[in-house]
Amino acid sequence: MPPAGPSPSVADPAPLLVEGRGELSRAVTQALRSGSAPRYEAGAVPDADAWGEDLQLALYLLYELHYRGFAGVDDAREWDPELLLLRRAMEDRFLDALRVGLPDTPGTAAEAFAPLLVEPVDLSGSLSHRLETEGELWQLREYAALRSLYHLKEADPHVWVIPRLTGRAKASMAAIEYDEFGAGRADRVHARLFADLMTDLGLDPAYGRYLDHAPAPLLATVNLMSLFGLHRALRGALVGHFACVEITSSPGSRRLARAMRRCGAGAAAEHFYAEHVEADAVHEQVVRHGVVDGLLSAEPELEADVVLGCAATVFLEGRLADHIREAWDRGASALRRPLA
After folding, report:
1. Rounded distance, CA 179 to CA 190, Å?
2. What tens digit of pLDDT does each residue of 38-59 get?
3. CB–CB of 265/141 below 8 Å?
4. CA 290 → CA 167, 243, 302, 306, distances in Å?
5. Which of 34, 145, 292, 304 is 20 to 30 Å apart from 271, CA to CA?
6. What is the CB-side half-sphere exposure of residue 114 using CA atoms within 13 A?
């Protein structure tokens, strides 16, 4: 059962804009603040580092217009044609880099998911295992601050795929999302539970609060699901991404629940991950046999996209884990700016 006591509000509906980190992200922030078209050099997107702070932040800011927007920014900018033109160019740059950077991908969805269904014998490369066995409270706080950029809108990017599915895939996806949104109970919405976790860890649970702390490898993981979710043409990739997340969630959540308990993080902090151990073990079966199999039965031509979504998720999560480990091995913060 969830810990007793009132839960704080998940977030302010409109977070504050952050400062840009380069030409593209500055162009976006200035355009949003002024209400004007973004101004940038013609070669800015082709010349940008696809994995860099500038492009990834610019993409994140533009995607956020489809979620809660920003304080002081007109909601109508969500469909501003100049902003959409810039976003599409950056999306193409991001997708091209993904396809080049990915190792050889499996030929079938079954082959893509098979390695994820077996717990590795060697967990030395697992970030959740490190946190479980030797993580310190400051590292758990950093991990939560990073993950808050997704978990405070948990499942929202995946809802976009539901009207693009049919039959068994649609029904199965809706069933999983119903659980993610608390099965009709506001106090059990997973985003709400993560806000409670943040409060236990002494973090600010306001939506988007730690955007300025988040490095590019984290932004890329959140941008990936927004990219897949917003494009009907990439619905297969979104399903592959979602399946990957659900398949790998339960074992990692079990380790993170133990880490929270070992470090005395608090009942709500432990509960968030304990809730995902059981829920995602069930979701893993539903997503594989209901969503993935249902989609490929109806649209077998999307199998390569399902594989892409799975492979891209594994790739970007690996890049993020490497970034965090390298920083912590040096005794440094994995954030752009350390927490107070």
Report:
1. 9
2. 999 999 999 999 999 999 999 9
3. no
4. 10, 11, 15, 14
5. 292
6. 8
Residue 231 backbone phi and psi in degrees, to 5: -115, 115
Amino acid at residue number 121: V
The predicted-structure confidence for 148-194, as pLDDT tens digits, reads as follows 999 999 999 999 999 999 999 999 999 999 999 999 999 999 999 99
Q: Tokens 């706080």: give the residue.
A: 141
Residue-wise pLDDT tens digits, 261-288 = 999 999 999 999 998 887 767 888 899 9
Please give the distance of CA 85 from its chain centroid, rounded to a whole number: 23
CB atoms near residue 258 (< 10 Å)? 19
CA distances (Å), origin 197, targets 138, 200, 270, 282:
14, 5, 7, 23
Q: Which residues, including other chains, have CB under 8 Å from residue 289's CB and lie 6 or more apart?
A: 172
Output the six-digit token pair for 229.
């979710």
